Amino acid sequence: DLAGAYSIDEFCAAHGGITRQHFHSLMKRGLGPRTFKVGRRTLISRRAAAEWVARMESITADALRPAA
Questions:
Q1: Which residue in 56, 24, 54 sits closest to 35, CA to CA?
Q2: pTM for this model (two decimals)
Q3: Nearest CA-CA partner of 10 in 33, 30, 40, 31
Q4: Do the bridges between strand 41-45 and strand 36-38 make them parallel or antiparallel, or are there none, so unpaired?
């Protein structure tokens, strides 16, 4: 369902106003959300966006955890 998907610009705006440059940097580092193509458009499903948020929360929590 394309109504349940973000364009890159919509994803960036909905997730803290990240820039397209930062989005593409995340993708190059393997830290971006799962995407799919419809024609020439790159989209991010709502599910993939939610999974990305959870992954970023986990990475942040791990980074903030004191070393044992």
A1: 24
A2: 0.84
A3: 33
A4: antiparallel
DSSP string, the chain: -GGGEEEHHHHHHHTTT--HHHHHHHHHTT-SPP-EEETTEEEEEHHHHHHHHHHHHHHHHHHHSPP-
- Cβ contact 48:33 at 8 Å: yes
Query: pLDDT in tens for each of the 68 residues of the chain?
Result: 567 899 999 999 999 999 999 999 999 999 999 999 999 999 999 999 999 999 999 988 888 888 76
CA distance 48 to 46: 6
Geometric angle at alpha carbon 51, from 44 and 63, rounded to 5°: 125
